[in-house]
Amino acid sequence: MYIVPERAIGDLMTRQAAFDAVEKVFAAMASGDACNFPVVREAIGHEDALYGFKGGFDRAGQVLGLKAGGYWPHNLEKRGLINHQSTVFLFDPDTGRAKAMVGGNLLTALRTAAASSVSIKHLARGDARILGMIGAGHQATFQLRAALEQRRFDKVIGWNYHPEMLPKLAEVAEEAGLPFEAVDLPGMRAADVIISITSAFAPSLMAEHVSPGTHIACMGTDTRGKQEVEAALLARARVFTDEVAQSISIGEAQHAIAQGLIAEADITQIGAVINGTDPGRASDDEITLFDGTGVGLQDLAVAASVVDLAIAQGVAIKVDF
Ligand code: NAD
């Protein structure tokens, strides 16, 4: 089997490779060629950690495996390690033998950014020019860099609950040669595309803060109880997701569903748009909303891609196992 350590991922994986892997696996999910297995997530009663597995099988890409890991809230202060820790394990689908072990931390950020980028590619208006960011934490800079590659944006605007973090977004915008402006939430009405990536448990972005024709990628809500946008916004929008079962249970749509504002049948898998079985955006005035909940198959897809790159570049560590 091969080992691709966390430290090697940064030099191997590109945003384009992550985008291609995620777009392909979303398509396979919608055509029934790939499925995610039920997620396990448990408080282990040690170090206040939350630990779990996300697994699946992509028959089209012949990728079988799981991501194991979770959240250790004291890592940073006690040990100087990041709090989110994960490792991806891949298995040979023909034999069940272990095939690869891959560092999953950077890959998680890249595959999450790739998911919102896939949604922008397929759902945002072609003439989108202003990108709005809500959130300025660890994931946000990855989201911003990837999104800027999807349209000819000429400005980035941002809001964050902790405004002192916004200079991180300004830096990324400036690297791309774009102006950055900090705005209040009503100021988001200027945005053509909005990415929301916070750990909030109450909505920041209200339906009245969004203009007709906007595409919104809600990427932060991945757990029961979390919420980034007003449920009424989902009723105003056409809603897409990576996986409907997760969207209605742990994604942003959980609240609109619970309040009876939308039904499960109103939510479309993004893979159907990629495959051309759903037309996606219907008009320039429609609000589209992607509920990106994060599925195991995304992790497996980018891990398989990075293993191929590591083998090709001679940096995969081969062990007899
Ligand atoms: P982080 O801790 O680095 O940043 C958290 C962000 O949320 C910051 O911008 C912070 O200011 C903001 N925030 C905190 N409290 C808030 C509040 N009450 N209201 C509004 N904003 C608030 O976290 P991160 O690593 O950037 O992750 C952000 C979120 O994305 C988390 O909820 C995480 O679980 C989720 N996530 C989702 C996926 C996915 O696939 N969908 C993948 C990775 C992470």
User: Overall mean pLDDT score?
Assistant: 97
Span between termini: 6 Å
Please write the CATH class name of the largest domain. Answer: Alpha Beta
CATH architecture of the largest domain: 3-Layer(aba) Sandwich
Q: Which series of helices and strands comes N to C?
A: EHHEEEEHEEHEHEHEEEEEHEHHEHEHE
Bound molecules: nicotinamide-adenine-dinucleotide
- Secondary structure tally: strands: 18
Q: Which superfamily, in CATH terms, is the homologous superfamily of the largest domain?
A: NAD(P)-binding Rossmann-like Domain
Helix content: 25-40%
* Most strands sheet: 8 strands, mixed
Class derived from helix and strand content: alpha/beta
Given as residue ranges, the uncertain stretches (5+ residues, pLDDT < 50) are none
Radius of gyration: 19 Å
What percent strand? 25-35%
Q: How is the topology of this model organized?
A:
Elements: E1 2-4, H1 6-12, H2 15-30, E2 34-36, E3 40-43, E4 50-58, E5 63-71, H3 75-79, E6 84-91, E7 98-103, H4 105-123, E8 130-134, H5 138-147, E9 155-159, H6 167-175, E10 180-182, E11 193-196, E12 201-205, E13 215-218, E14 227-229, H7 231-236, E15 238-241, H8 244-249, H9 253-258, E16 267-269, H10 270-275, E17 288-291, H11 296-312, E18 317-318
Parallel strand pairs: 1-7, 8-9, 8-11, 9-10, 11-13, 12-14, 13-17, 15-16, 15-17
Antiparallel strand pairs: 1-18, 2-4, 3-4, 4-5, 5-6, 6-7
Helix pairs in contact: 2-4, 2-11, 4-5, 4-11, 5-6
The structure holds nicotinamide-adenine-dinucleotide (NAD).
